[in-house]
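ARCHIVE ENTRY
Sequence with per-residue tokens
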Amino acid sequence: MPETLMPGSNPPSAVMLFAAGFGTRMGALTANTPKPLIPVAGRPLLDHALALTDGVPTRVVNAHYLADQVVSHLAGTDVQVSVEHPTILDTGGGLKHALPLLGPDPVFTLNTDAVWSGPNPLHLLREAWNPATMDALLLCVPLQNAIGRKGGGDFSLKNRHLSWQGDFVYTGAQIVKTDRLSTIDDPAFSLHRLWNAALDAGRFCGIPYPGTWCDVGHPEGIRLAEDMLART
């Protein structure tokens, strides 16, 4: 099982968990349930992700589709919810919308539709983060260790620098600086806007994940993730 995040010298103090999507690839499973609350191995996907964030002082989850269920699920916890209304804002817009809760410093971001087997991904990012040379640090897994992945990889990785297209899959975990968000006026936009700016500046970085990772963005991923966890 993934280890919990250990205290470090100067890690980001906030994490954004993306949980606002419609989950259309899940088909009927998300007709009445938001994807982050679909159970895998006895607990919701969102709770698998939150378990990785222990030790991060500020935790924020965004919500849009069936947002009331996400809000209700997190009631009584220290996790804040950034509700996107009336429209969904995509990853970049969602992160910008949540900045009043997250603060101005670099943040962890974590997708909630994946399950991990191996070291805590935020721990690995924290250890590798160098704000002097990086605007974004993505955790990527070799394609052969990306269980349930449909399609090829996202990036090439060489000497901790990323470029588009290759055999590494983005896991949905990163550290990213948020200052450039203030220069984007569109309410809804992808984090790719920040990534491409970082790439152009030579500050778009990545590290490989040494464990296994399962995409649970489609129904088959539930069984694959449960099988993966049963082997650990």
About this structure: The two ends are 6 Å apart (CA to CA).
